[in-house]
Write a structure and sequence with these properties.
By secondary structure, this protein is an all-alpha fold. The protein has six helices and no strands. It folds into two domains: 39 residues, no CATH class; 83 residues, no CATH class.
Length: 135
């Protein structure tokens, strides 16, 4: 189907991952083997676990995020920040860490996945550049 059509290789590769993920979700259903989807925990639940039960402080959160970024684990760092559920929204240090993580994710996906690039840029309010019209 793609043979002899080099103009469609890049769009195919960009969309491929999202199509596979969609088909997987459609066929696996809500309840997955790792208990995902069984219980619906909110961001507030995760934040309560981190801060109220595990005693994670603002400083500890930022330090962990910085270590994850240094190790190139940007998705895990973003997940940790999202798990804080807004408990530290007032913190400039957490805001800086969040910006760094999403800039790194944007950088990672800028040439391979426009969907992720747009989502990550929206998380920190970054404007995505307009594409020039083809002449």
């Amino acid at each position: 189907m793609l043979n002899g059509r080099p103009d469609v290789y890049l769009p195919y590769l960009i969309l491929r991952e999202h199509v596979i993920d969609g088909l997987y979700d459609q066929n696996v259903g809500y309840w997955q083997a790792d208990l995902q989807g069984l219980d619906h925990l909110t961001g507030a639940d995760n934040a309560e676990l981190l801060v109220d039960y595990l005693g994670v402080s603002e400083r500890q959160l930022v330090k962990a995020v910085e270590r994850l970024v240094a190790d190139g684990k940007y998705e895990l760092a973003a997940s940790l920040l999202e798990s804080s559920g807004g408990k530290f929204d007032h913190s400039p240090a957490v805001a800086n860490a969040r910006r760094l993580v999403y800039l790194k994710l944007m950088e990672k996906h800028q040439n391979t996945d426009p969907f992720k690039f747009i989502i990550y840029s929206g998380k920190i309010g970054e404007q995505t550049p307009q594409m020039a019209a083809a002449k």
